[in-house]
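User: Quick sanity check before I run a bigger batch. Here is a single chain. Can you write out its predicted 3D structure?
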Amino acid sequence: MIKKEIAMYDKFIDRFMPSNDMREYLKTVEDLELWRLLDIIWHADAPVQDKLDALKELEKDPNIQPDEDSYYRDTPKSLIAQLEYALDILKTDGVYVLNIAYYDSETKNSEEDYKGLYSTFEEALEKANETVKYYKEDYDDLSWGIITKWEKDENGKMVARCEYHIVDSELKYINFENPNIELESRYIEDMICMGDLYLPVPFSTGDLVEVNGAPFSPNFHGIIVDIGDNHDCCCVQGLARNRDGLWSIGAVKHNIFGIQTAPQKAMLYTIDRYYGELPEDEKVLKTVSEMLKNNKVDIDRYMFDTYWDFTDEELLEWTEKAVAESKK
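Assistant: Done. Predicted structure follows.
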């Protein structure tokens, strides 16, 4: 099942893909499979109810069928069942544990603080929204709530069923911990995408880009250094500063680009070409970008035979060698 067979693709891409560059490009990809569209909806930074409504709308389309020749055979119906299960158990007996999470600029990772135990989801949600307001003042808006539903299993033992992530006062992500129904889906473990948003991209080697990871991580700049076949999960390689302050290369679709945190919004949702002024300590990116573009460097021939973390001086030296290697 591909895009040209389903008229509603563009509407959902508009609704759930915030990146301007990605959104406009994906609407031109005629062979975009159904499972990729479901990925976009499922992992989006959007209210869970909006995702559920979109999946129900897709389900009504008589053309919708699973991608029979693909490992990825989810349908709107299978994903609807998961979301409805997660929302239904909010009405059953149990307890709700509230943690407030935030991005710590010193450790460059996400941290959590326990905030209490509640008898209803509504009570926990109210407290989460109230507390996050104070955290955002201290952590540059990089804060969110995590509410975990616990209930007794068939043996009377308390187990965590689902984890609900509250972003901007809305329930946007659900992680399934120990669901008590069988949910046949590759999505079962995680709704917050830890990478693996397998989409083709509109970028070229040398493009300067900006990524907005809020609320899980701060904005950062980088360079696309290789596109490959624009299909494989590891083909799009980017260069950005890592947690140690060095320049590092990694797979953009796997979120191995910039500072990795857990959880982390899939980078393809917010990645866009960057045309603004770079901070002084990132000026080297402009130089490297121009070298790659002007020389049409095939980074793939060179990058895997060298080291991965660079100072500014090492990055310039590496780029010069990559340019020379590509001309052989």
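The two ends are 42 Å apart (CA to CA).

User: Great, the batch can go ahead then.
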